[in-house]
Amino acid sequence: MSIYQYFRDVVDEKGAGYFVLIDPDRLAREAILDLAEKASAGGADALFVGSSLLLSSDLDDLLLAIRAVATIPIVIFPGNIMQISRHADAILFLSLISGRNPNFLIGEQVRAAPIIRQYGIEPISTGYMLIDSGRLTSAEFMSNTRPIPRDKHDIAKATALAAEYLGMRLLYLEAGSGAQNPVSPEMIREVAKYASLPIIAGGGIRTPQQARERVQAGASFIVTGNVLENNHDGNLIREFASAVHSR
Ligand code: 1GP
């Protein structure tokens, strides 16, 4: 079964899915493995691995080590072309559709596609939309793009619909890692009503309550990163999972 189909099945069975993001630049290896193990045991549906930069080396080795401690799928959430490994189950094939930087709309993708084909990992076409979060984020700075203002629901809706018409399969509404304000439930609700692609919401989600509100607004998947990085709390992971899983 494809990872994309697994994602769809998670939504059918549980109402929504919960993903834990591991940023290899922000944690030591032992901490990464501890977090991966707890996320897998605590009810997360997949691990996302990626970074805006990826300063740490040897992604292959890290993914193999994660695989040894986690039973859930490992999906690369790449910040750039350096972050491709044959040891992932899938990779979000992102196009930064909120921005107008051709390199992140199609340039990196042209360079990445042959490598992904050669490695045989599953690409999942994803429209990646940066939404303003109240302060400059790494994703904005590194991509040299401007985010969609958080109150401009019409722009977000039109962008999401364009992604759907272009044949993309997921939308990622991203406030940026460590965002001051997560993407609002109002924007998620408007986009979910307007376009039919499943929505991943991430960036700045710090409480299970915030996660649940975004699922209730129409998000199909919730990603958390920062909140678990300093505190590998198995209980908190379980609370997030049960807040996201409404069934
Ligand atoms: C960032 O959406 C993810 O790309 C997660 O963000 O680290 O703020 O949870 P946080």
What structural keywords apply?
eight-stranded parallel barrel; TIM Barrel; binds SN-glycerol-1-phosphate; single chain; 247 residues; alpha/beta
Protein described:
- The two termini are 22 Å apart.
- The chain is an alpha/beta fold and 247 residues long.
- The chain has helices at 3-14, 29-41, 59-69, 102-119, 138-143, 153-165, 185-194, 208-217, 226-229, 234-244; strands at 17-22, 46-49, 74-76, 90-96, 122-130, 170-174, 199-202, 221-224.
- It has one domain (3-244): Alpha-Beta Barrel (TIM Barrel), CATH 3.20.20.
- Strand 1 (17-22), helix 2 (29-41) and strand 2 (46-49) form a beta-alpha-beta unit.
- The protein contains ten helices and eight strands.
- Helix 7 (185-194) packs parallel to helix 8 (208-217).
- An eight-stranded parallel β-barrel has the order 1-2-3-4-5-6-7-8, surrounded by seven helices.
- It binds SN-glycerol-1-phosphate.
- SN-glycerol-1-phosphate binds at residues 21, 174, 177-179, 202-205, 223-227.
Look up the CATH topology: TIM Barrel
Report the uncertain regions: none
Ends distance: 22 Å
Q: What is the class in the CATH system?
A: Alpha Beta
Which secondary-structure class do the elements indicate? alpha/beta
Largest sheet: 8 strands, parallel, barrel
Shape: globular
In the CATH hierarchy, what is the superfamily? FMN-linked oxidoreductases
CATH architecture identity: Alpha-Beta Barrel
Beta content comes to 15-25%
- The share of residues in helices is 40-55%
Bound molecules: SN-glycerol-1-phosphate
The total strand number stands at 8
Number of self-contained structural domains: 1
> Which radius of gyration do the C-alpha atoms yield?
16 Å
Give the mean pLDDT: 95
How are helices and strands ordered from N to C? HEHEHEEHEHHEHEHEHH
User: How many DSSP helices?
Assistant: 10
What's the arrangement of strands in the largest beta sheet? 1-2-3-4-5-6-7-8
